[in-house]
Write a structure and sequence with these properties.
Blueprint lengths: L1 H23 L2 H5 L9 H7 L3 H11 L3 E4 L9 E4 L2 H10 L4 E2 L1 H7 L12 H15 L2 H29 L3 E2 H18 L14 H17 L3 H10 L2 H34 L2 H4 L4 H6 L3 H4 L7 H15 L1 H16 L1 H13 L2 H4 L3 H4 L3 H13 L5 E6 L3 E2 L5 E2 L5 E4 H4 L3 H4 L39 H18 E5 L20 E6 L2
Parallel strand pairs: 2-8
Antiparallel strand pairs: 1-2, 3-5, 4-10, 5-8, 6-7, 9-10
Helix pairs in contact: 8-9, 8-24, 9-16, 9-17, 10-12, 11-12, 12-16, 17-21, 17-24, 18-21
The structure holds protoporphyrin IX containing FE.
Protoporphyrin IX containing FE (HEM) binds next to helix 7, helix 16, helix 17 and helix 24.
GO molecular function: heme binding; iron ion binding; monooxygenase activity; oxidoreductase activity, acting on paired donors, with incorporation or reduction of molecular oxygen
Family: Belongs to the cytochrome P450 family.
InterPro entries: Cyt_P450, Cyt_P450_CS, Cyt_P450_E_grp-I, Cyt_P450_sf
Length: about 500
C-alpha cells in the first residue's frame, strides 16, 4: 500500500514538474530543450501551431543560427539560419556546394523533375529554357493582357456583386482563384474559370492544397514514418497519392488538347494559336538540342513543368496580396498614400503598362514591406555537397540539412533595425524618392543568387494592377472578430482566410 502511495506521489510530482515546465518556462527555452532520446522533437511538435513566432524568438536569442536536433538516426537534424552572411555564402558565393539534394526531391516528389526540385546540370538547362520562354516579348504581352482581363472580367464583377449584396467574402479565396486562373492561362492557354460568383471547387486547385499540407508534414516527421504512411495509404499521405493521380490526369488532358490545337493550327494556319503566348505551346515547340533537356517532347516533362509553374506562381502571389490587404486594413494612412500616388501618376488614364507601374514607388515599397513581413515562401532548404564552415562559424557536414527561415529573417532586428516588426513602406524609398534596393541575402522573399525567382516581375506587376484597381474603386473593411494567423504549409497563407466587406467608392 505504502509503495503504491509512493508511486502515486512520484507520478504526481513528475506530472506537476512537467506541467510547470511546459506552462511557465519561457516558450523558446522549451523549444531548445534537448531530451535524451527524442531530443528537440517533442518541443517542435508542441510549438508547431506557433512555429513562425517561435522561430523569430529562437533565432533572435541564438544570434540568428540555431542547430536543431531531431531523434537520433531519424535524419531530422538541421541547422536553421537567418544570418545574412550565411545566406550570401549559401545562395551566392558558394552556390555550387549547396544543392536542394535528394532528400528535398523526395519530399517534393509529386512535382517530379521540375525546376524547383532539380539541381546541377538539369536545373541549369531548365533555368535557361524557362528564362528564354518567360522573357519573350510575346509572353510578356500575353501575361499583361491576361492579368488585366482577369481583373476586369473576374475580380471587378465579383467585388461589385458582394458590394451590392452587402455580404462578406473571403478575400484570400478570391485572390487564390484569381492567381490560379491567371497562371493556368499563362501556362496552358486555358481558363479554368474558378473565379466566379458561384466559387466552384476546382479539382486541380484542391489537389494542390492537399499536397501543400502533406509536404509540410513530411518536413516535421521522420522519413521512415511518412514513407510507411504513404505505403499504407494513411492520413496526409493518402491525400498526396490521390492528388498525384489528379495531377497526372488533369495535366494529360491539357497536354493532349494543346498538341491537338498546335496540329490543327499547322493545317489551318490558325493565327490565334500560332501567336499564342502560353508556355505550354512554347515548351512543346522547344528546341531540344539547344537546352539539352532530358526528354522535352515527353509528356512527363510537360506535366512536371505545368505543375512546377503552378506551384511557383499561384499561392505565392495570392498569399502576398492577402497579407498586403490585411496590413493595409491596419494602416489606413498607407492606403491614403497609395491612392494619392495612383492619382498623381494618373494610372487610370496612362494604363497598366510596365513603364507606368514603375512610377508607383510608394506602392512598390508597400508590397515589398508586405512580402518582407509575410514572405509567401516562408522557408528555404539547402544541403552541402562537401562539408563546410559557414561565416557564422557553424560547421555543416556533407548532405546535412540547412533551413533558411524567411519569415524570421524579415523580422530580425539585427537585420532590419529596432522597427523590424513595423509595416513601413518608407523603408523602401530613397531620399530622392526612388526605389531603395535591399540586397537579396537580406530581402530573400524572391530568393537570391542564381536561383532567384523567375516570376518576380510578373508577380509585382500583377499585385500592382490588382492593388490600384481595388484601392481606387472600393473600400475594403476587414470583418471584426476573426482570427488572423498564418497556416502551417509550404506557402504562408492565412489559416482562416480574410473575411472582408466591400463598398464601392464614388
Ligand atoms: C509574390 C509572388 C512570388 C514570390 C514571393 C516568389 C518567390 C520565390 C522563391 C522564394 C523562389 C525560390 C524557391 C526555392 O528555390 O525553393 C522562387 C522560385 C521560382 N519562382 Fe517565384 N515567387 C513568386 C511568384 C512567381 C511567379 C508568378 C512565377 C511564374 C510565373 C514564379 C516562378 C518561379 C520559378 C520558375 C522559380 C524557380 C527558380 C529556380 O529554381 O531557378 N514565381 N520564387
Amino acid at each position: 500500500m505504502a509503495s503504491i502511495s509512493l508511486l502515486q506521489v512520484s507520478v504526481a510530482i513528475l506530472g506537476f514538474l512537467t506541467l510547470h515546465y511546459f506552462l511557465f518556462k519561457k516558450p523558446h527555452g522549451r523549444f531548445r530543450r534537448n531530451w535524451p532520446v527524442l531530443r528537440m522533437l517533442p518541443a517542435l511538435h508542441m510549438a508547431l501551431h506557433r512555429i513562425y513566432d517561435y522561430s523569430v524568438k529562437i533565432l533572435e536569442i541564438s544570434n540568428m543560427t540555431f542547430p536543431f536536433k531531431g531523434p537520433r538516426f531519424a535524419g531530422m537534424d538541421m541547422l536553421i539560419t537567418v544570418d545574412p552572411a550565411n545566406i550570401h555564402h549559401i545562395m551566392t558565393s558558394n552556390f555550387s556546394n549547396y544543392i536542394k539534394g535528394p532528400a528535398f526531391q523526395d519530399v517534393f516528389d509529386v512535382f517530379g523533375d521540375g525546376i524547383i526540385t532539380t539541381d546541377s546540370e538539369l536545373w541549369k538547362n531548365l533555368r535557361k529554357s524557362y528564362q528564354a520562354m518567360i522573357h519573350r516579348q510575346e509572353f510578356q504581352r500575353f501575361s499583361m493582357s491576361t492579368m488585366t482581363r482577369k481583373l476586369k472580367d473576374g475580380i471587378v464583377p465579383l467585388l461589385d456583386h458582394f458590394a451590392e449584396k452587402g455580404t462578406s467574402v473571403d478575400l484570400q479565396d478570391v485572390f487564390g482563384r484569381f492567381t490560379f486562373d491567371t497562371i493556368l492561362i499563362l501556362i496552358t492557354g486555358y481558363d479554368p474559370r474558378s473565379l466566379s460568383i458561384e466559387m466552384p471547387e476546382d479539382e486541380l486547385a484542391k489537389a494542390l492544397d492537399d499536397v501543400g499540407e502533406g509536404i509540410l508534414y513530411r518536413h516535421v516527421k521522420p522519413r521512415f514514418l511518412w514513407k510507411l504512411q504513404n505505403w499504407v495509404g494513411f492520413g496526409e499521405e493518402k491525400k498526396m497519392t490521390r492528388a498525384n493521380a489528379t495531377f497526372d490526369r488533369v495535366c494529360a488532358k491539357y497536354i493532349s488538347a494543346k498538341r491537338e490545337e498546335i496540329k490543327r493550327s499547322q493545317v489551318v494556319t490558325d493565327i490565334s494559336v500560332a501567336e499564342s503566348g502560353d508556355l505550354l505551346t512554347s515548351f512543346i515547340k522547344l528546341n531540344t538540342t539547344k537546352y539539352k533537356l532530358l526528354n522535352p517532347s515527353d509528356d512527363k516533362f510537360l506535366r512536371d513543368t505545368i505543375l512546377t509553374l503552378i506551384l511557383a506562381g499561384r499561392d505565392t502571389t495570392a498569399s502576398a496580396l492577402s497579407w498586403f490587404f490585411w496590413l493595409l486594413s491596419e494602416n489606413p494612412k498607407v492606403v491614403a498614400k497609395i491612392r494619392q500616388e495612383a492619382i498623381n501618376t494618373d494610372i487610370s488614364r496612362t494604363g497598366n503598362g510596365q513603364e507606368h507601374l514603375d512610377k508607383l514607388v510608394y506602392l512598390h515599397g508597400a508590397l515589398c514591406e508586405a512580402v518582407r513581413l509575410y514572405p509567401p515562401v516562408c522557408f528555404g532548404r539547402k544541403s552541402p555537397i562537401k562539408s563546410d564552415v559557414l561565416p557564422s562559424g557553424h560547421k555543416v557536414d556533407a548532405n546535412s540539412k540547412i533551413i533558411i527561415c524567411l519569415y524570421a529573417l524579415g523580422r530580425m532586428r539585427a537585420v532590419w533595425g529596432e522597427d523590424a516588426l513595423q509595416f513601413k513602406p518608407e523603408r523602401w524609398i530613397t531620399e530622392n524618392g526612388g526605389i531603395k534596393h535591399e540586397p537579396s541575402f537580406k530581402f530573400l522573399s524572391f530568393n537570391a543568387g542564381p536561383r532567384t525567382c523567375l516570376g518576380k516581375h510578373i508577380a509585382m506587376a500583377q499585385m500592382k494592377i490588382v492593388a490600384v484597381e481595388i484601392l481606387q474603386n472600393y473600400d475594403i473593411k476587414v470583418v471584426q472578430g476573426q482570427k488572423i494567423e498564418p497556416a502551417l504549409g509550404i506557402i504562408l497563407s492565412m489559416k482562416h482566410g480574410l473575411r472582408i466587406t466591400v463598398t464601392k467608392r464614388c
